[in-house]
Automatic annotation (TrEMBL):
GO terms for molecular function: phosphoribosyl-AMP cyclohydrolase activity. Belongs to the PRA-CH family. Catalyzes the hydrolysis of the adenine ring of phosphoribosyl-AMP. It catalyses: 1-(5-phospho-beta-D-ribosyl)-5'-AMP + H2O = 1-(5-phospho-beta-D-ribosyl)-5-[(5-phospho-beta-D-ribosylamino)methylideneamino]imidazole-4-carboxamide. It is found in: Cytoplasm. SUPFAM superfamilies: HisI-like (SSF141734). Its main location: cytoplasm. Residues 57-130 form the Phosphoribosyl-AMP cyclohydrolase domain. This is Phosphoribosyl-AMP cyclohydrolase. It holds the Pfam family PRA-CH. It comes from Halomonas colorata.
Amino acid sequence: MSRFDQQPTDKLFKALESASPQDELPATATLLDAVRFNADGLLPAIAQQHDTQEVLMMAWMNREALEETLNTHRVCYYSRSRKKLWRKGESSGQQQHLKSAALDCDGDTLLLQVEQTGPACHTGRRSCFYLSLTHEHATINSEPLINPDELYGKQ
C-alpha cells in the first residue's frame, strides 16, 4: 500500500505533486477514480506521434474509452456527435496504437503517445492542426495525404 492510497480521490492529484519516480503509486483504477472528467463524463485526450512529437489531434474519452485504450493499446475515443465509443480507424483504417499515456498534474487532460497509421485527421491530413493563424490571416500548412473520399467513401 502506498502513502497515496489513503488520500480521498478529490485530493489525490494534489498529493501526487510531491511524488517522485521512486514512490509507489496507487493502482490505475484508483487514479481513474480521481480523474476529473467534465460534467458530461469526458476527458480531453491529445494524441501525439510518439517518435516525432507531432501533435496529431485532440478528442474526448470517457472512462470506458480510456480503460479500453489502456487494456488493448488500440486508441478508443468517445464520439460526442454519435454518443458512442469510437475506435480510431474503425471506418478509415487509420488506427492509433498506444505507446504510452500520461495524465496532467490536475488529472483533467490526457496525453497519448501513439503510433499513427496514415493520416490522423478526417480531412486526410497527418494532423488535425493544419490551419495556422496569425493576427492578420490564416494559412493551410499541409496538404491531405489521402483524399477523404478514399478514406471514408463518397459521403
